Amino acid sequence: MQSDDLFVRKLRQPPSRSSPHKSPRESKSLIGSGNSRHNGGARSLSESEFDPRDKGSGSPSAPRFKDPFILLGLAGNSQGPSAHEVKEKPPEGDPVAPRPKSFAHHDIQSILFDPFRRRESEVRKNVRSGASAASQIRTNSSPRRSLSSPEDPGDPGDGKDNDLLLSCPYFRNEVGGEEAEGQKDQGWDFCSVSPLHAPLISFPVRGPNASVSVLEEARERIRDSSYFVEYQDLGALYYRKYFYGKEHQNFFGVDERLGPVAISLRRDERESAQGVQYNYRIIFRTTELKTLRGSILEEAFPSSIRPNSSRAISPKKLLEYIVSEVNLQCLRLASNSPKVPETLLKLDEQGLSFQRKIGILYCRSGQSSEEEMYNNEVAGPAFQEFLSLLGDEVRLKGFDKYRAQLDNKTDSTGTHSLYTRYQDYEIMFHVSTMLPFTASNSQQLLRKRHIGNDIVTIVFQEPGALPFTPQTIRSHFQHVFIVVRVHSPCTDNTRYSVAVTRTADTPPFGPPLPTSLFRRSPELRDFLLSKAVNGENAAERGGKFLAMATRTREEYLRDLARDHVTTTTLDSCSSKLAILSLSKKRDRAGSTGTGDKGGKGTRWAYSVPPEFHSSGTLVWTVKAVSVSVSESIYMLGISSEMLVLVDPKKEREGAVSFHCSCRDVLGWTYSSKGGLDLYYGRAGRLTLCPIASNETEVENEINHIVKRLQVSKTIHGRQ
């Protein structure tokens, strides 16, 4: 295996001339029955539009392929500042050498990790956020008209409205029938959930792209509901699962370019078809909210690094190989304080919470303003009927579950509230009519101090209510509003219509909103709770919350580097390998073989590169296209469980442009131009070609992709 340095040098070489001979691979079928049975798949690209040697912007001779950092698609596209914000030009970062090809990423976040990126949250200044951005714009328009205005120099809104919801500056509306991102004809079977009668709502069995997080676990083991949770960083549990309470090493320091950093290392063993293997796990944390999480099998290291005995690879060599961008001289071994692992847990899981608080406002007939809704003292029958569908009314005094800052001792925030559980989440609702009412205060601050600090708010409208607009709301935190209008309340024919609005910097989220009405049923509850949970997860990817999370993360990292380190440097630690060595030693020196048990004297011989047996995700840079994937440059990731296409330019939307289980890959065929047609699901086809500097390297990359797929298919064949 070539070293990382050699890989970088190859990428920086000018592209070789085209080989004079024809590629030895014609349209050769490896698995399945060939092209004839896949007539319904995506079109194949013609030679002129999908040639890995072309000299356009997608060519290896283009500037972005002369630098590994740009090649991997990690350079962000800078957007021009809008009128309501001022951006400073972020400082230039150094190019990042690509991870070793043998590094197996744990999750999507790890694939997107770029320690030199200057996040939007770090360079924004004076940004109004949430409903407050819209409420600053005042017009004299009729409340029945769209409130976007030519006087607004910034975002005018999307122009979409209906009887429930008006178009609003700095907001994006969902009124029903919008196509869900990542669900356009991916070649899947569809399941249906019906608001009135089946089938009216359809969703793919494999879920939306925004729901993809951990890549080395089967999706079926995670999913237990009609809808998927989106924008959830389940990879944050990596430290808890593989490091916490186990023997491992932590190193902290302050890098002059990266700022405070924290690194965790562990060597463990895993059982495989080849027997027992050693695996090196790493977590690399910077102030960037993305974290590098993954592993490398010991046999996948270059021979110059790999030990010839039971001793582990030294931490210094390990870090030089995997994270060469960090200044190793700044690192110190962490102390043995019990606070260290606890702080690392909090640091890694700061954005992962399974408790949610959701506001609910009550809007009577003829009402639309924030003040009118807050001043509705008690709930009417239609509102009470709706609340009973969402959750259970609980007595606050003595309540021992998640209370969302409500008083469970003295009834100062009301005597009762609404509580429920949804999938893995505890949800407490801040219901306006259950919070204290103050007759002498028209602003109802005792109510607003809770609901005004909720990211997601449900607005319940009685028949005859005026359309809702976020312009009437004054809050920096309220970013998502789910508007529910009841029809024929308190009858056997009660129905509900739904519309959703979100801030412009909140990415779209599911489940998709149907055009039909919902009946009063568990399906409506499932839909609303899923929409609310996903809405909060999506909103937290916006500028305000990113800035808050980044500040908190940096404080954790600086505290660790300042107060929880020893004087032991990485150099002096390199000879103290007992921490990373396993108690169960194996003498593996001087023998090469394929033994079945991984016993004494065994060093594995592989028919394919050893990293292809990793559970994590190996990454290639490819050009790809299908019916649901626009032609572009992507990062192709293949784990033991899943295949994904990642577009770093769409990081805000989750970056995943396509995914499928390796179980659903039916087969693949080579094309005469060096590409690969991959067939999946029901007549789905994905055409891809690796990006490399010459035909030989393209062919090598294709062969590696095929080998990785073959190993994954073999794993599932044994299950």
TrEMBL record:
Pfam families: Rap-GAP_dimer, Rap_GAP. Residues 132-145 have a biased composition (Polar residues). Residues 344-560 form the Rap-GAP domain. Residues 1-105, 123-163 are annotated as: Disordered. GO terms for molecular function: GTPase activator activity. One of its GO terms (cellular component) is cytoplasm. InterPro entries: Rap/Ran-GAP_sf, Rap/Ran_GAP_dom, Rap1_Ran_GAP. Keywords: Coiled coil, GTPase activation, Phosphoprotein. The keyword Phosphoprotein applies. The keyword rRNA-binding does not apply. GO terms for biological process: regulation of small GTPase mediated signal transduction. PANTHER family: RAP GTPASE-ACTIVATING PROTEIN, SIGNAL-INDUCED PROLIFERATION-ASSOCIATED PROTEIN 1. This is Rap-GAP domain-containing protein. The lineage of its organism: Eukaryota, Metazoa, Chordata, Craniata, Vertebrata.
